[in-house]
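Hi Y.,

Following your request, here is the sequence exactly as I used it, all 67 residues.
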Amino acid sequence: MFYSSADFKEKLKQAKIPSFDLGYFGTIESIKEQILLMGDIIGEESNALALVKLIETKTRELKAKLP
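Below is the corresponding structure, written out as tokens. Let me know if you'd prefer a different format.
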């Protein structure tokens, strides 16, 4: 089952269940953007920013270990 199908979205709408289409998660950058967007939507901007900074730190650490 695809949770982004038009049929599924229509069922959510009919059930009056709020939903939000986050789009495509194809890169680390797009994932970080979506984390920040979700943080803004749910009022957790500082936690979202902290998570993005952690991702950036861990990515830098990993790159430093690679030849």
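The mean pLDDT is 90.

Thanks again,
Q.
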